Amino acid sequence: xxxxxxxxxxxxxxxxxxxxxxxxxxxxxxxxxxxxxxxxxxxxxxxxxxxxxxxxxxxxxxxxxxxxxxxxxxxxxxxxxxxxxxxxxxxxxxxxxxxxxxxxxxxxxxxxxxxxxxxxxxxxxxxxxxxxxxxxxxxxxxxxxxxxxxxxxxxxxxxxxxxxxxxxxxxxxxxxxxxxxxxxxxxxxxxxxxxxxxxxxxxxxxxxxxxxxxx
Length: 215
Fold this sequence. Notes:
Blueprint: H1 3-15, H2 23-31, H3 33-45, H4 49-65, H5 67-70, H6 74-80, H7 86-99, H8 108-116, H9 124-140, H10 145-158, H11 163-179, H12 188-198, H13 204-214
Helix pairs in contact: 2-3, 2-4, 3-4, 4-7, 6-7, 7-9, 9-11, 11-13
Protein name: DNA alkylation repair enzyme
InterPro entries: ARM-type_fold (IPR016024)
C-alpha cells in the first residue's frame, strides 16, 4: 500500500462519520494539492452521503479562499451540474461562482445553459439555490445580469409551482434583485414582470418589497 492509498483510507475513515471537524481538513486542502485532489475526487464520485457531503463542505471553504488553486477543478464542478443526484447539482452551483474571478477565458458562458436549467429542476430547493447563488455570479460577471434576470423571470412565468413554492422562489428572486441593485427603471423585462406579479394574489411582504423596487 502506497502513501496515496494510506491518505485516502484515512480520509474516508474520517469523513464517513456524521459529525466531522473539517477545519484541519480545510487547512490541509488549501496547502496540499495532492490532498485537495483527493477531496474533489471523493466529492465528485463517492457514493456515501457523508463522504461527498463533508468533501463539499471542505471545498466550499477552499474555493472561496483560493480560487486560483481550485481553477483546475472547473470541469469537475461543471460536471456536477449534470449529476443525477440533486445534492451534487447544488454543490456544483455553489462552487462554480467562486472560480469566476479566475475565469479569464469566460468558460462560464459555455456552462451557463447547464447552470440555469437548474431553475427547472424537480427539487424546489435546487431552483432556489440557483436563484440565490446567482448573486455571486452577477457580482463577478455583471455583463450577465440581464441574461440571468431574464432566465429567472422566464422560469417564474412558467409557474408550475404551488402557490407557496411560487412565493418562496419569488421572494428569493426579489432578494437577488435588491442585492444586485437591478432596477426596474432600467430593466424593462423586470419592470413588466413585477407589474404582472402585482396583479396577482401575493403575500403582503412580497407586495411591499415590489412596491419599494418600483419607486
